[in-house]
Amino acid sequence: MIGRTLLVLTAVLVALAGPAAAHARSEYEVKAAFLFNIARFVEWPSSAGPEGAGEFRLCVVGEDPFGGALAALERRRLHGHRVVVRRPQSPLRMERCHLLFISPSAARFRVAAVLDAVARQPVLTVGDSPGLAERGVIVNLYLERGKVRFEVNLEAAKRAGITLSSRMLRLARIVGQDNG
Amino acid sequence: MVGVVCAIGGFMGAAAHAATEDKGPLLALGLEELMEVEVTTVGRKSQLLSEAPAAVHVITAEEIRRSGATSLPEALRLAPGMTVAQMGSHTWAVSTRGFADEFGNKVLVMIDGRTIYNNVYEGVYWDAQDIALQNVERIEVVRGPGGTLWGANAVNGVINVVTRSAADTQGTVVSVEGGGPREQATVRHGVELGPGAHLRFTAKRFEADPLKEADGETANDAWRQGRAGFRLDWAPAWRDQVMVEGDVYSGSRERLTNDVLFEPPYTPTVRDEEDIAGGYLLGRWQRRYRNGSSWTFKSYYDYRTRDKHHLQQHRRTFDLDFQHQFQVGARHEVMWGLDYRAYDDELDGKTYVLEFDPQESSSRVAGAFLQDEIALRPDLFLTLGTKLEDNEYTGTEHQPNARLLWRATETDTLWAAVSRAVRTPARAHTDLRANVAAFPADGLPGLVAVLPHQDPESVDVTSAELGYRGQPGPRTYLDVALFYNEYEDLYAIRDGAPFYEHAPVPHLVFPLYGTESVSGYTRGLEVVAQWQVRSDWRLEGSYSLLDSSFNVPAGSHDSGIGQFVDHQVQLHSRVDVTDRVEWDADIYWVDDMGPAGFDAYARFDMRVGWRPRPGVELSLAGKNLLDPRHPELFSSDHGVDALEVPRSVQAKVTVEW
Lengths: 180, 657
Prior knowledge:
The complex is a heterodimer. Helices cover 36% and strands 24% of the residues of chain A. Chain A has helices at 2-17, 27-40, 50-53, 91-95, 104-117, 154-160, 166-169; strands at residues 25-26, 42-43, 56-61, 77-78, 81-86, 99-102, 124-127, 139-144, 147-153, 163-164, 173-175. Chain A has an eight-stranded mixed sheet. Chain A starts with a helix and ends in a 5-residue tail after the last strand. By secondary structure, chain B is mostly beta strands. Chain B contains nine helices and 40 strands. The interface between A and B is large, with 62 and 71 residues. Strand 1 of chain A pairs parallel with strand 1 of chain B.
C-alpha cells in the first residue's frame, strides 16, 4: 500500500518536473562547461595570458545567469592556472579579464560600452544573446533544437590578439561583422 | 550519455548521485560532446532583475565603494527616487515616493531576506544595522508596492541588501578610515574549509562624530558600536547551497530628549545615552533541480535590546520561510511560498513618558503567496500573484498584483503593473500611551498625551505603474517609471476632550488619539539615465517628481504622514583617471519639504581613490563640500532641534592579501 502511494506520488512529481528532467541539463550549467572548454582552445599573447597573471580570470559582466554553476569552475585549472571568477564593474577591471562573459542583461543594455572597455585588449569576449558576434563579440553561444552551439567572429579575435584553435573553429559557425 | 538517469530517480533519488555524478561530468566533456547535451531553458530572462516588471534599481558593491559611503543608509542615497535624510549621526529617514519620516513605515528593508523593519515602532532602527559595507554584494531597491512577494509593509518600496558569499571574500582585508563622519576599523578574513565550503569572519568597530546644531555647535549625538560576525557557504553538490550567517553587536548612541514633569520646568531637555545590542543567526538552504525548479528554506532568529532614559526594550523574532518555484509546460513559471514569524517583546517604560500596556507581548504573522508568470508570447509576459497574510490586529490581508512586460525590441522593454499593499498596525499604536509634554494650565498642570488606539486598521495603497527601460543609443541606458498611488486609512492624530487624572499628581489630560482617517494620492515620475561617455568615464543622472494630495478630516492632524519632496535630482560621475586613480563626484539636489520642512539643499560629494599597488587602496572622500552644514529632516523626537549635516572629509586605507 505504502509502495503504491509512493509510486503515485512519484509519478505526480515526475509529471510536474516535466519530461526534460530525465536527461537534459540546465542551460547555464552547460554554458558554464562551454566557457571552460572554449578557454582550453584559446591562446592569449604571452604577455597578457594567464601565465603572466598567475590566475585565470573568468569574468561576468551584468547579472550572473549561471546560478552557482561558475563556482564549480573555481576548483579547476586552465592553462595551468587556477580559475577565479570575477564580476568587474569598471571598464578598467574588465581589461584584466582573460575571458569576459557578457550576460544577457549587459548584452541588452551596454554591450557597446563593454566592448569599448576591452577594445584591442587580449580579452576573450563571450556572450549568449542574438547578434552579439556580429556586433564584435568574439564567441557567441546560441541554442539550436535544445542544444548549445557557438558562433565566432574571427576579425574580433584577431583585433584582440587572441588565437582560436582550429579544432574549436571546426565546430563553430563563422560570422562576419556588421559594419552598420 | 551524461545525465541519463531513470525518470523516477532523476527527480527523487538524485540527491544520492549528486555529489559523485553531477559535478564533474559536464566539465570533463570535450566541446564536441558538449554540443550534444540537451538543455532546458527556464524563464530566466524574465527573472533577471533588469527585466523585472517593476521600478528596480541595483546598487552594486563597486558603486558603494566609489561613493565613499560609510553606512548603509548613506549607500542608499545612490538609488534614484530614494529620499535619504540624515537626522542625527545615527538616525536617517529612508523613504521613496513620499512619506519621509524617521520611522519610515512604508518601505520594507531586509538583509539577506531577514527583515530589519521593526514592527513595534514601524520603521528601521538604522543604528542597529551598521553592517560592514565591504561585505555587501548589492542592494536591490524596488520602488512601488512589493506586498505580493514580500508581505506587509512593502507599501512604497522594498530594499534588499544582499551580502557576498564567503567564497567571494577569501583572504584578508583590513580597512581603516577616519577624519570625517566616523572613525572605523574593519577586519575580514575568509578561509576555505574544504571543497565547496567557505567561511569568513568580519569584525568592525567605529565611533561616529556628532552632527552640528543650527548654530554650528556640536550636537550631542555621538554613536559607537562594535560588531562581529561570520558567514558560512557550503555547496555540498551542484544542487544544494547552504548558507549560515550571524552577527553580534553592541554599542551606544547619544541624543537629547525631553522629560515630562508636573512642575517647572515641565518639559526639560535631558541628555540620554541609549545602549543598543543584539544579534542574529540565519540559515538558508537552496536546492535546484535539472528541470529548472528550485526551492529555498530559510529561518532566522534575531534578538535586539535597547535601553534608554525612557524605555528598555527586548525583542525576539523567529522566522520560517519556504519558497518553491517550478515550470509548468512551456509557458508558466509558478512560484509559491509559506512563511511564519513570531515576535516576543518586553517594552518597559522607565519614566512617565512612554508607557506600554501590556509590557510583555507575543504575536505572530503567517502568510502564503502564489504567483504565476505566463509567457503569453515570446516577447510578452504576464505575472499574476497574490499574498494572504494573517496578523493579530487586522486579520487576513490580501495583497494582489498584476504585471505585464513587453520586450518591444532587442533593446527596449515596456512594463505596466497594478498592485495593492498594506502596512499593518504596530504595538506603538495599540499598546502605547506617550505623555509627550506638560505645561502650566489654569489651576492644574496640563499634560499632552497620545493615547492607545483600540481598533487600528491597516493603511492600504492601490498603485498603478508604467515603465520603460531601454538603450536609446549604443552607450546610453534609460529607465523611466510613472506611478499613481491611492492611499486609504493613513494614520493621523485627532484631538479628544480634556479629562481629569488624579495620579501621580492631579492634572488635566489633553488627549490625542490615533485615527486612520486620512486618504489621498501621490503621483510621480522617475527618470534614470546612464551614459558611458568614454570607456573610462561613466555618468548617471536621475530626476524624480512627486505630487501629492491628502484629505485630512476636520479635527485631525496629519502629523503622522511624513514629509514630501517634490523634486530630486542626482548626478553621479565615475572617472578612471589612470589605471590606478579614480575620481568620483556625486551631486544631490533635494527640493524643500513644504511648510514643515526645510529649504531645498544641494549636496556635493567627491572622492579620489588611488591604488599604488594591487591590494592596496587609499582614498579621500569629501561629503557636503559646497556647504558648511545643512539640515535634511526634522527628527520626530519632540522638543529637540533639527541637527545639521556638516562638511567632512574622510580618509580611508584598505589593504588586501
